[in-house]
Specification:
By secondary structure, this protein is of the alpha+beta class. Helices cover 41% and strands 22% of the residues. Bound molecules: alpha-D-galactopyranose. Alpha-D-galactopyranose binds next to helix 5.
C-alpha cells in the first residue's frame, strides 16, 4: 500500500520514512449540510485515499513533497496559510499547527512524502484524507496521543481555523471512523460516531461532473451564514432551540410566515435532511434499499429546490441515473455547487450502464464525467 510513497520519499530525501499513515476519502451518503447545524449525517469511507510517509529532520524545517512533483519547504513554527500553487500544503501545515497548539512537542522538523489514490476535486474530500493521514503520522513521529474522535477534531480544526473553510465534522469524522462495508453515522450535536453495516449487494458509484464552480468556497460560506440566520429567525418562535436541527418539521411549517422566504427554504432543507437520515437508518435496518433510494432522490430534490446547492450538471446526472432500473437512488454528495453525484445501485449496474450515462451527459454538457465504482473502506490508520 505504501510502495509509491516510499519511492517518492526516496527520490527527495536521504533515508526511509519511519512511519506511514493512510486515510480515506469519503462519500456523503445522506444528511446534506446538517453537520454544522448540529444534525445527523451518514457517510462512508472509501477504499481510495492518501498515504503519507514521514521521518524526522535534524534542522528546524518541514519539507513536503507530493506525487504532483513539487517540494515545499516551511520553517518549523512559521505557520501561515498560503494561496496559490502551494496551497495544498495548508492541510498538513494546519494539522501540524493544531497539534503543536495542543501540546505536541516538535524539537526538529520533518520530511513528508504524500501520494494519493483519490481523484482530487472529485467531491470525495481528499482534504480530510490528507489532514487525517498527516495527524496519524505526526502523532507517531512526535509521540502525541489522542483517540479517534480527537484525530477527527484535529482535522476539522485545521480546516476551520487554518484553511478557513467553515465545514462541519462530516469529512474528518468519516475518514477517521470509517469501517469496511459499513456506514458511519454521526450525531453532530453530541459528536458521537457509530458504524452500521451496509446491506449486502448495494454498491456505490460516483459520477464526478468535472464542473468546477469558481465560487465554491464562498457559496459554502453563504449557506453556512444563511443557516445561522435561519436559526436566529426561528429562535423568535422557539427560543429553546440551540441549533437548526432541534426544529421539527411541524415547528418549521408553523413558523413559515414568520421568517424570510429564502431562509425558510434553507431551513426546510436542513430539517428535511435530518428527517431523511432517520428514515434511511430505519430502511437500512429493514434491508429496504428501495426506501433508502427514495430518500436519496428526495435529498437531491431538496438540494435543487430548497438549498440551491445543486447545479444543472448534477441534476442531469441524477435524472439519467434515476432512469436506470439498477439504481436505487442518486443525489449530490458533499458541499455541492459542482462536484459529484453518488448513486446507490444493485449488483447489475456496471460499466456499460455508466458509459451510457457518460455519453448522454457529455452530449448535453460538453464535459466528460469521471466515474468510480467504490466500496466502503476502513478509516485512517498508521501503516507502520
Ligand atoms: C462539505 C463539508 C462538510 C459538509 C458537506 C455538506 O463536504 O466539508 O463538512 O458540510 O460539505 O454536507
Amino acid at each position: 500500500m505504501h510502495a509509491p510513497t516510499l519511492e517518492l520519499f526516496q527520490q527527495y530525501f536521504p533515508r526511509q520514512p519511519v512511519h506511514y499513515a493512510f486515510a480515506p476519502g469519503r462519500i456523503e451518503f445522506i444528511g446534506n449540510h446538517t453537520d454544522y447545524n448540529g444534525g445527523l449525517v451518514m457517510g462512508a469511507a472509501v477504499t481510495e485515499g492518501i498515504t503519507v510517509g514521514v521521518s524526522l529532520r535534524e534542522d528546524a524545517m518541514i519539507h513536503i513533497v507530493s506525487d504532483a512533483g513539487d517540494l515545499v519547504e516551511i520553517p518549523l513554527g512559521n505557520y501561515k496559510a498560503v494561496k496559490g500553487a502551494a496551497s495544498w500544503t495548508n492541510y498538513p501545515i494546519g494539522v501540524t499547527k493544531v497539534m503543536a497548539d495542543l501540546g505536541m512537542a516538535t524539537p526538529t522538523g520533518y520530511n513528508m512524502a504524500v501520494t494519493s489514490t483519490l481523484p482530487s476535486g472529485a467531491g470525495m474530500s481528499s482534504s480530510a484524507a490528507f489532514e487525517l493521514a498527516t495527524a496519524k503520522a505526526l502523532a507517531a513521529l512526535y509521540g502525541f496521543e489522542t483517540d479517534t474522535a480527537g484525530f477527527a477534531r484535529i482535522g476539522r480544526k485545521a480546516e476551520n481555523e487554518f484553511v478557513g473553510m467553515p465545514c462541519g465534522i462530516l469529512d474528518q469524522g468519516v475518514s477517521a471512523f470509517g469501517k469496511a462495508d459499513h456506514l458511519v453515522k454521526i450525531d453532530c450535536a453530541t459528536e458521537t460516531f457509530v458504524t452500521e453495516p451496509m446491506p449486502r449487494g448495494a454498491h456505490f458509484w460516483i459520477f464526478n461532473s468535472n464542473k468546477k464552480h469558481a465560487l465554491v468556497d464562498s457559496a459554502y460560506a453563504d449557506r453556512f451564514r444563511e443557516c445561522h440566520d435561519a436559526l436566529a429567525q426561528l429562535q423568535a418562535d422557539y427560543p429553546e432551540a440551540k441549533t437548526l436541527s432541534e426544529i421539527s418539521e411541524g415547528q418549521l411549517a408553523a413558523s413559515k410566515h414568520n421568517i424570510d422566504e429564502l431562509i425558510f427554504l434553507r431551513a426546510a432543507h436542513i430539517v428535511g435532511e435530518n428527517a431523511r437520515v432517520r428514515k434511511v437508518e430505519m430502511a437500512l435496518a429493514n434491508n429496504d434499499l428501495k426506501a433508502v433510494g427514495a430518500c436519496l432522490n428526495q435529498s437531491h430534490e431538496s438540494s435543487r429546490v430548497n438549498f440551491e446547492n445543486s447545479i444543472e450538471e448534477l441534476d442531469t446526472l441524477v435524472e439519467l441515473l434515476k432512469l436506470q432500473p439498477s439504481v436505487y437512488g442518486a443525489r449530490l454528495t458533499g458541499g455541492g455547487f459542482g462536484g459529484a453525484v453518488m448513486a446507490l445501485t444493485d449488483t447489475n449496474f456496471g460499466q456499460a450502464q455508466a458509459d451510457v450515462i457518460a455519453t448522454t451527459f457529455e452530449a448535453r454538457h460538453g464535459l466528460q464525467p469521471s466515474i468510480f465504482h467504490t466500496q466502503a473502506g476502513d478509516g485512517a490508520k498508521l501503516l507502520k
